[in-house]
Amino acid sequence: MISFRTAIVLLCLIGIASSLGCAVGNEQVLASAESQLKLRSMQSRSFDTTDKIKTLRAVIATLQDLGFVIDKADDELGTVSATKAKRYLIRITVIVKPRGKTRMVVRANAQYDIHPVENPRQYQAFFDALSKAMFLQAHEVD
Fold first, then answer.
1. CA distance linking residue 29 with residue 36, whole number of Å
2. Domain count, the chain
3. Is 76 a domain residue?
4. Which domain, by its residues, includes 106?
5. pTM for this structure?
6. What is the pLDDT of residue 87?
């Protein structure tokens, strides 16, 4: 039989251990939130336009130029999903939505096989090509 004193010590130890587990869990959540914010910032770009349809068309053209096959496009939702398959499988979903009265935000989310793409160079290459397409579209160059 456990004495009263031993029971109190055990309860205190359990309380300390559970509070340490929460502290570690909170740090992991904060670190995860910070990494998600960093990932979101490299996946998003803002463009000076109010035309959602033209932006979606530029996204589609850019993806096709980069070798993707468009799986689905929805102008009402502002989404485009595409796939590129050679020696590997890349899936990308691009979302276009208004920000304020004069801008559109484009966010790309890519997967390599089943793993999220977290390399900023891949997103930068997409947004560089998209920027060029939108420039040409704005100046009506074919």
1. 10
2. 1
3. yes
4. 45-138
5. 0.73
6. 83
